[in-house]
Amino acid sequence: MKKIYSFLLGTMLFTACSQTQEGGMPFQNTIKIEEGDSQELIIEKAAHVVPTPNQLAALQNEFIAFIHFGPNTFTRMEWGNGMEDPKIFDLKELDTDQWCEAMKAAGMKMVILTAKHHDGFVLWQSRYTKHGIMSSGFEDGKGDVLKDLSASCQKYGLKLGVYLSPADLFQIESPDGLYGNLSKYTKRTIPREVPGRPFANQTKFEFVVDDYNEYFLNQLFEVLTEYGPIHEVWFDGAHPKRKGGQTYNYPAWKELIHKLAPDAVIFGREDVRWCGNEAGGTRPTEWNVVPYPADPDTMTQFADMTDAVLGGRDELYKGKYLHYQQAETNTSIREGWFYRDDTHQQVRSADDVFDIYERAVGGNSTFLLNIPPNRDGKFSPRDVESLKETGKRIRETYGTNLLAGAKGPKEVLDGKEDTYLLMKDKEFTVKMPSPVTINRIMLQEAIATNGERVEKHAVDAWIDGAWKEIAVSTNIGYKRILRFPEITTDKLRFRLLESRQTPAISHISAHYYKSRPPQLGFRQDMNGMVTIEPKLQDFGWKSHGENAAGNLNAGYKIYYTTDGTEPTEASAEYTEPVQLDRCELKAVAVLHGEKGTVSGERLGLIKKDWKLLDAKGGSNPSLLALDLGNNQDLNGFAYKPQTGKGFKGGVTKGTFKVSDDGKNWRTVESFEFGNLINDPSKRYHYFKKSVSARYVRFDITEMAQGQFTIGELDLL
């Protein structure tokens, strides 16, 4: 017989230990594995690990923002060295309202500011250093980015978090720096009083710490007491340099955070963990119940968890403790954590961001997206456009539940977080009042009260008088979004296939995502065979490796032209690779009558008959000579340097020569390409007058960073 259990989530933190089910085992945030525990008992314990109220609230944020801002914004560096003159932070204006408006439009619920990055430069008016905004020209040294952002967050209803780098290159590199100065551990009072700068919060702490830990604790006290409620404290694990055997007194940091910011989760320690990459990649199965080698409450060192599987059965058996620790899937909307420019720095499309959102939030994690402000103190237009379009898609897709009015277990259909259905019968059915067209299903477990238990599940739809499986997946946890080609049905069936004890399903809803025509890209092989396909976003920095267009926009058709005219649905339809030789190719995707962006590219000669005549690399000058197989009329060429790991550089200057016999050469023109390091995109050089030749030669006279690399070379 099915039962409904209802609990008040806000009181769960301390009552979880007294809640029992199936044999009397208590629900806890951390459970010890005892010597001799059977595998069956370990799995039972894993099924009784639950998040704290703070962890649950952090999961419910779902989509949150990172803000990387500081001297690197102006030096165009990813990592500063700590010795930058604070005046290089040449900020003239700041518009944190614009940030929050864009983040709110995207559907984000919290923003985390890099109040101090690894360079040690602080973005608030700290009492304990001059290396920060107080020594810049912004607002005559009186500016405070954290204060302005806090006010904007309250105005727009966003939560605020702070990133405070434990590593501090200013304190490492300065002659009198505190980091690793070998000072003695003595009893210190936090905060240290500073004449003329009293604290409104009179809480005092006493810790036995060294100079750097005292400095860090004093700064933690400032940001946690003077900038409104803080909901996440983000500790980066990066160590650009180590000095003097410096260690961090994490137990003292934790005590201070828990006292001053009782609603905050701590990233990088036992509350929230890294997903294992910075590219927006997601694990197919992301368990938040994970094994630990020791009690996380007493640990001081926390390793990054980067394995492909973290909480599977085999992993749980190896642990000493089982602990709830959720993942944040983090990446940047731009190519790099800090803003560089609006010309060459790539920006993720809304397709890309929305795809990561569905995989991250719908894969039992939180999506943390970095948006770096520009040197005008604003988000750049392309970033704002992508954020707003992403938010529009989230609202359009998940703002309407297509199971509204359906009949079935009310505890999974009522939209309440504190009711759930115990899956003793292994399946349930939902009947809609009339047929609906759907391509998304959202599922949630009652993790706060019953833990993560589903290991494998499937959903069927009633189609043409029979059940048809439309989606199958592994775990659910906080949330699972199932994506599948659109179907029309009036009845759905959930089937539990594998589990850790009896799961509790708290939610099911169905949704429809309106596909958009993808932007297209082209590939041409040596034989001239051209493939037209959705453009994979070649981020160059850190790509998540997923085909966002393929995930989101199935069912489109492609039309193309080869004479430079705009393609329409009356143009040739692309169905398979086609051989093309020297043409102006344009193509467009059409989906449900909607046209996408027209893509175009000048294609070169078919290369199958080309032979290498001569090549010299290394130091200047270098050359590349080719035999084209027969005489060709040429009016230019296209060049793209090699990119990827280990490649940086390319041809920046040279001359183009031709020959009729491969021995006697005549110069056609000189050429020059700029900024290949920051922008390694394809470049075109057109001749003033066309030439005819069988043999061609590139004499390279200058190379970026001394590397002669060729990714693509086309003759036009």
From TrEMBL:
Its EC number is 3.2.1.51. The keyword Protein biosynthesis does not apply. Keywords: Glycosidase, Hydrolase, Signal. PROSITE patterns: FA58C_3, PROKAR_LIPOPROTEIN. Residues 610-716 form the F5/8 type C domain. It comes from the Bacteria. It holds the Pfam family Fn3_assoc. Belongs to the glycosyl hydrolase 29 family. This is alpha-L-fucosidase. It comes from Parabacteroides segnis. The lineage of its organism: Bacteria, Pseudomonadati, Bacteroidota, Bacteroidia, Bacteroidales.
